[in-house]
């Protein structure tokens, strides 16, 4: 298994990134691709998980080992595949998911794309009591509206459009996204920040 890849980010789109290492470009699916910026001057480390099935061979990548560990745990839950796991981790931190599982908060868990009541209950049955030890330092207030987002860099209009496409890739319905677009248009954020802000609103 590939533990991590260190290289230059060559390409970013709403679904995946491409990282170049020794002349090879690795296609890596990741929860929020726009957390990674194209930069041929610096090297990025991506913690990877190789997913193998009869008809699938894919790499999934994360900023931290902790995110990857939770992704692997989620894949072991009946009803959750890689796409569902990415959607759950897309806000960038696993803390709120852990709290929801520990508190048996099904109403929160079913807000994720593809997670119904049966899958939410299975998540709780399979994972409750097993994640705090796995991620002892996880924050539990990651979706709070009071959570500060720092704005840096130049803002361009199409960053909101990129964020909307990324939300669709994660499985959110267009009607759900359309409800929050007016509020998002009032803010000037980077693409990854738009995605995080949108998830705060979608998961309320």
Explain what the structure shows.
With 204 residues, the chain is of the alpha+beta class. The protein has three domains: 1-63, Nucleic acid-binding proteins (OB fold (Dihydrolipoamide Acetyltransferase, E2P), Beta Barrel), CATH 2.40.50; 65-142, 5' to 3' exonuclease, C-terminal subdomain (DNA polymerase, domain 1, Orthogonal Bundle), CATH 1.10.150; 158-202. The chain is 38% helix and 21% strand. It contains eight helices and five strands. It has helices spanning 65-75, 82-89, 95-102, 106-109, 117-127, 158-170, 174-184, 191-202, and strands at 4-12, 16-21, 24-29, 39-53, 56-62. A five-stranded mixed beta barrel has the order 1-2-3-5-4. Helix 1 (65-75) crosses helix 2 and helix 6 crosses helix 8 (191-202). The longest helix has 13 residues, at 158-170. 32% of the residues are buried. Keywords: Cytoplasm, DNA damage, DNA recombination, DNA repair, DNA-binding, Hydrolase. Pfam families: HHH_5, RuvA_C, RuvA_N. InterPro entries: DNA_helicase_Holl-junc_RuvA_I, Hlx-hairpin-Hlx_DNA-bd_motif, NA-bd_OB-fold, RuvA, RuvA_2-like, RuvA_C, RuvA_C_sf.
How would you sum up this structure in a few lines?
The chain has 204 residues and is α+β, with helices and mostly antiparallel strands. It has helices at residues 65-75, 82-89, 95-102, 106-109, 117-127, 158-170, 174-184, 191-202; strands at 4-12, 16-21, 24-29, 39-53, 56-62. α7 packs across α8.
